[in-house]
Amino acid sequence: MAEPRILRFYLDDDLRQSAQDGKHNFINKIRLVAENSGYQVEFLKNSIEARQKSASLGGFALFHMDDPTHDRALTIRRVYHYPFWAIEHTAKRWDWRVARTEFPADDVTSKEAGRFYRFWQKRLFGDVPARTRRDGFVYVPLQGRLLDHRSFQSCSPIQMLREVLKHEPHRPVIAALHPKETYDALELAELEKLEAGNARLTLQLGGMEDLLERCDYVVTQNSSAAFNGFFFGKPAVLFGQSDFHHIAADVTKIGAAQAIRTAPDMAPDYAGFIHWFWQRMSINAGRDEATDQIRAAFERAGWPV
After folding, report:
1. What sections of 204-250 are H helices per DSSP?
2. What is the DSSP-derived secondary structure letter of residue 303?
């Protein structure tokens, strides 16, 4: 028997209120697609228990940034900056459709991509990308759980720092702690020990925009700082799986030594990639065709629309 055409959003309080009030552009467009396809739309409180319970309810579900708990649920997640979004079968970016799709480097006209790229450079970072330079250091934006080697990583973040210092023989390394992460005493002790034993290593808190303006290249697991670095024309080395691995030096494929050795001289098509990644592989909620893209995402998931 076919599932009832009910679409339930599971959202945290502020986002749920915004959606119910019709003030969230992307969710408004999802709702439009759903209702035009005969769905009843409901907005529910988000919790682990509620998401688990949704499996026993008829109909379909959308979770915000949380992994789906059953095969009639999908996740919605912002693609780094507004108004770009994804509707996916998982919250894990490295398993998204874009991550599994080859970047067609010759499939975007340079004029169209360049215009799009320059617009978003200015929109996101003002005039700073126009002043970008290379001051001879490596920027390592850190994320969380510094001592853990998680399944999507080639090594732990602290080991990543050791690998950078080992394979980058000359440049200073600036490792920046994430301002919104909480680090425990053991993590901080390991960092301080590493800094004390390496004259080329400096630790600081945040400072992404300034560091992207001045660094030679970026090394990270899969931090969005590396994606932002593309707007500054800065090459990236990735020690973890990512949705934007296509134009980066990928340690999981070529190893740390080769990735770090080749990164400084990399000059990929940043404009073409950003255009493809956002305009073709994401949902631009600010454009009229967003409803067609939403419908296509539902069709890929096998939802009746």
Report:
1. 208-214, 224-229
2. -
Q: Residue type at 226?
A: A
pLDDT in tens, 211-259: 999 999 999 999 999 999 999 999 999 999 999 999 999 999 999 999 9
Pairing relation of β-strands 217-220 and 138-141? parallel
Instruction: Identify any residues that bridge with 211 across adjacent strands, giving them in sequence order.
Output: none
Q: 84-88 and 283-284: which strand pairing?
A: antiparallel
Supply φ then ψ for residue 6, to 5 degrees.
-125, 130
CB environment 132-149: b (16+ within 10 A), e (fewer): beeeebbbbbbbebbeee
Query: In the block, which residue shows the tokens 């010759």?
Result: 106
Q: Are 62 and 74 in contact (CB under 8 A)?
A: yes
Domain 6-101+281-300 matches domain 112-276 at the CATH topology level: yes
Annotation: CATH topology of 112-276: Rossmann fold (3.40.50)
- State the Cα–Cα distance between residues 305 and 209, nearest whole angstrom: 42
CATH number for region 6-101+281-300: 3.40.50
Put simply, whether the predicted model's pTM sits higher than 0.85 gets the answer yes
